[in-house]
Amino acid sequence: MIKAVFWDFGGVITSSPFESFNRFEKENELPLDFLRLVNSTNPNSNAWAKLERNELNLDEFDKLFHKESSELGHSVKGKDVIALLKGEVRTDMIRALRKIKGNLLQACLTNNIQPMGKENFEGNVSASGKHDEVMKMFDFVFESSKENVRKPDPEFYLRACERGKINPSEVVFLDDLGINLKPARELGMKTIKVINSFEALSQLNSYIEIDLD
């Protein structure tokens, strides 16, 4: 019996940052998906992973990302990549959040970075601070930058279940990255890869007794 819905944030509740990455690459004559290549090289110990575990400040990330991207053939400043993370809220996902709220446990599980202040970055890419009204619809928010562990580490999901006082088998988890879904599925969660809102919500509707149409 499903008792909880766990949601990723960027790429699920909001549009994918990969769309912004691709626009940046085109504008700066970089190979397609170059930024994803940088982020997927040494994925547990690279600049991006360390930032999401809150092991680097913005200046340290900026320098390390620049070094890593340069080693892969194209120099990109880390701060330029951070500026691409803002996403547009998907209204159909928000409607689903509202319908589920109060009926099932609902949580946001996000790899994110801590607020940095306007002196460093215009805006806030911490999930809990960026969309306050949206975040109020979750019973809790589980953030990599506060827990010092990130997806796809199985410990991330186990801690989230412990926070919610539920078993993994009682959870449906939505994420836009297969690499994040695999360990959740191996722990016993039902998983949904979000490619578009319509298909994702249709699958979610098959798992829970709440009409999301």
What do these coordinates show?
The protein has helices spanning 17-27, 34-40, 47-52, 58-71, 78-82, 91-100, 127-130, 132-135, 144-147, 154-164, 178-186, 197-207; strands at residues 4-7, 105-110, 140-143, 171-175, 190-193. Strands 3-2-1-4-5 form a five-stranded parallel β-sheet, with helices on both faces. Helices cover 45% and strands 11% of the residues. Helix 11 links the parallel strand 4 and strand 5 (190-193). The chain is built from twelve helices and five strands. 35% of the residues are buried. It is α/β, with parallel strands linked by helices. It has two domains: 4-16 and 88-207, 3-Layer(aba) Sandwich (Rossmann fold), CATH 3.40.50.1000; 17-82, DNA polymerase, domain 1, CATH 1.10.150.
Properties at a glance:
213 residues; 5 strands; alpha/beta; 2 domains; 5-stranded parallel beta sheet
Largest sheet: 5 strands, parallel
Hey, roughly how much beta strand do the residues contain?
A: 5-15%
State the helicity in percent bands: 40-55%
Strand and helix order: EHHHHHHEHHEHHEHEH
CATH superfamily of the largest domain: HAD superfamily/HAD-like
Distance between the termini: 21 Å
Quick overview of this protein structure:
45% of the residues lie in helices and 11% in strands. The protein is of the alpha/beta class and 213 residues long. 35% of the residues are buried.
